[in-house]
Amino acid sequence: MSRIDRREFLRYGALGASSLALSSFPFGGKILNFCPRAYALELASDLSTEEARYYKKLKDWVVECELCPRSCKVADRERGYCGVRENREGKYFTLVYSRPCSLNVDPIEKKPLFHFLPGTTAFSMATAGCNVNCKFCQNWDISQVRPEQTRNYFLPPEELVDLAVRYKAPTIAYTYSEPIIFYEYMYDTAKLGHTKGIRSVMISGGYIKEKPLVDLLKHLDAVKIDLKAFTEKYYKEVCHGELKPILDCLVTLKREGIWTEIVYLVVPTLNDDRREIDDMCAWILDNLGPDVPVHFTRFHPMYLLKNLPSTPVKTLEMARRTALKKGLNFVYIGNVPGHEGENTYCPKCGKVLIKRTGFSILSNDVVSGKCKHCGKMIPGVWS
Amino acid sequence: MGKRSQLTNDGTKPRFFVSAFYLGFLSLVAQTILLREMLAVFSGNEIVLGAILAFWLLWVGLGSLFGNWFLKRFSRSLTSLGWSYPVAAFSLFVALFLVRHCRALWGYLPGETIPLLQTIITATVSPAPLCFLLGFLFVLNASLFSERLGRNLTNKVYLLEAIGATVGGVVVTFVLIPYVSNINIAFLILLTSLIAGLYLFSSQAKRISIAVVSLIAIGSLLLLVSGFTTAIDRFSLRSVWRGFSVRENIDSKYGKIIVTQDRDLFGFYENSSLGFYVPNESHAEESIHLALLQLWEPRSLLLIGGGPGDNLNEAVKYQDLKVDYVELDPELVRVAEKHLTFSPEVKERVRFHFLDGRFYVKDAERNYDAVILDLPEPLSAQVNRFYSREFFEEVKGILKPGGVFSFKLPSSENYISPQRAQLLGSLKKTMELVFEQVLILPGTSNIFLGTDRSGELLFDPDLLLERLHATQIETKFVNQNFLFDRLSFFRMKMLEDNLAATIPKLNTDLNPICYYYGGLLWASQFRLGGGKILQFFYELPGGWPWFFVLALGVMIYLLSRIRANHLIATSKLLIFTVGFASMVGEVVILLSYQTFRGYLYSRIGLLLALFMAGLALGALIGRRYRLQIKGLPKALLLSQVAFVIYILVFIISLGIISSGTIPSLVVETITYIYMLVAGLLGGVQFVFANNIIMRMQSREVTRSCGTAYGLDLLGSGVGAAFCSAFFIPLLGLRETLGLLLVFALLCISLLAWLVVSRK
User: Do B489 and A16 touch (CB under 8 A)?
Assistant: First the structure.
């Protein structure tokens, strides 16, 4: 496992800037000297024509997508709800294969994954498109547009993995928008990454069918699921989605044994009712067990909900208390730096195991996957 | 005694005066409160405002054209006129209900932004019955009383209606709005309309009608006096804010303030937009520290906007820092003080100034180490004036050498869309014209920094961290990890690349392009949001508004030639152009006022009243010159020449006003005069053109008055829509006036040709 320290980051920045200065290309040109050490990233000039892997052909050049529970029936020259899959004469294509529009190096804690290689970085990427439309989306200008509306790079899986290696990121995170909609690209990159020692994590809303999910999990190392609420009403009104398939997805993840963490964004007046949170925790306990980390994160006014104030910290504390009382072992508070709810506590001896503030790790007392103080096994991926 | 004097004696004449006057009064009061209600529900963007105004005028125009058709076929009586006013007042309630509850009716959540398309549909549909009736009532008044009094009274109705509107504007601005809620104003309108109705048909109607109207009037009065209407208002408010605990509901001079509480968090809303909330340390730490850490030991800070919340607590963490906090609305601070606790340091070291931020900066002395602007994005002309080159120059003028100016705009930390890049790029370009060094820090909000010395601004997280440690200030959010994540090479580079890929225009007072860019960004949030329409107009070749106006001119010319009677055709089209031109003039004045004075919301009623007073005055002057048919085209020509001179003077004075050398009181007075004169010229021209139609079609009063009024309003509607949505943001205020000048010259040539050909 390798880490990138801030000095290194700055040095890369300086190198990148100098390579830029030396470049003969203007900023808006065809090639962007985006990365350090004169590593040039090419802007994609077109959309991809990689055939989709989960669909069936119907009559009259109509296809039915079998990737997500929406099961879009798509006529010729039309696209699915996600806007990134197109039917061309009865053949279904993904338009975003090797076409990411956003690349960053983030702390893994930002995803958030708290029990997965803490203190490391994740090379994070996304393409345009999403299969739901959440009114609070913080990445709406990627997720709610079509790929021809974004500036995309041409970055095949080999180069993406290579970039993660260059940035000394042990993990690639498929994130920001909804990775399920660039399934083929994620699948190939994750598979290739494993051959080069790079792990893959999917940061997703979990709106996917079982078959493609199970196939994908063979090449993933962890999954974070946004469980956006615990009512169908909320999913329908706020996200244009459904709850049931998400719960099914979580059960599948548990069954397949992949490391999973859950995020519940607490939105004032919409999903902050104590009973709803109580019901959700009961379901998690019954179906996923007590060791799944649950993060109650703070909402900030975003996108179409700019007129809702943030979640009061006291509401998050109520949610955390409710979950702990229900019997969940690892319950966190997110987006409130310095709060004690950011730390990992040993469920046996109660001592602080990982002390955090924001995305920083201040101390880590998990040794070989066990509590340094009492030896209790702490679930997660630690090395 | 002749028939005419008999009719006069039976009370028709006073009824005519009351009816036409009340029509204007009702129209302006209803328009003002409905506009306030809409501004409080929809995003207060001028593009939306223009659409609202345009559809209002179009419906009134259509109503009068319908009146034309209808009244030619069906009988008219004082009873039907008398009933029409209460029906109009009732439709005001319907409009208010639809606007206030449109979020729920459309299925949107409380706090959710209503998309442009739905906003425009609501703005179109909700006032439709009311406006349609108002247009119809104009024709009904003119035709009914013309018939009864035996002469064409269209111009007189126009005059009385304008006087009524003027009085309505003054009453609603100074008497009603400060003390009475919108719902109660609507009840008062219902009450007065019932009384007016009673008076109108008292001599003719059946007793049962009089009894019914009297009962409704007494019932309304009782509801008003008993406080029931206030209870309805509260109930309706609760249903709009379902899920929230509303602690305050205040109609201040500058807008509607709502305070909500959720556990220990207070949200402060201004016109339904979340202004600020407390606690919100992350916002405050970002706003304050990323600017002040650029300086060693800052001593003086000017903070404009952001609300009297955590920003102040954060700022006083700097030892010996004196803070001047500028807030337009004292009510906001009063209500914040009621619910929030200010630290002793805030009480000791913060001075509150209640006035417009731009005025404060204009008159302030050069002694600030830092100026922080914490306002919403420039989505409207009102806010855009704080992001213009002129304002940046004024800020630079009050900063000490090496001082820092900062503001932040919401953004996305992972991707910069072309629409956002356009807005950010324009602001960067504008900043760079004024400041020696400009820096934008990426993140969930982009922080703009500017200073008059190059190489002073820091973006190295190490150096910023060093400064933070040196201040010994305790922060929760702005820390090592925050700085390194936020100022990562990837994010800095992504922002730089995306901005470099755009070629934005400069944002100035007279060319407020950023509110158009803001509109594009705002509209891009919605899948069916109208953003594509805005983008389409933006991407058209630069001079399209000129082609539009030229094409309009040519079309008017050709249409005037098609009809056998050129004089009537030309006059009718001229009425359309008068409506178009005076509305463009009115919108330019309103937005200039917004730009230079900054608080349109509190003066909208007065400005509209002045315009109507001008119309009344113009109609009066026009009536004094009882010209023969031969002299009318010439008179129209002269009035059009006067309009050209008016535009020229306006263009010149805009340049002088924007230089900032004229005292603000003078600017305010000049604006009022311009508004009055715009109305006056419109009124004179309407009367002259209408006289031509009346004289030529003297046997058909209904037809002439409805057509003239309808065309005037249709022209106004087209003018309002194009001017506020496209002309001003794309061309700027001065070029829009230039456009109007060309249009007026086209009309002059048409008239000159008519005068010469008739000779």
Answer: yes
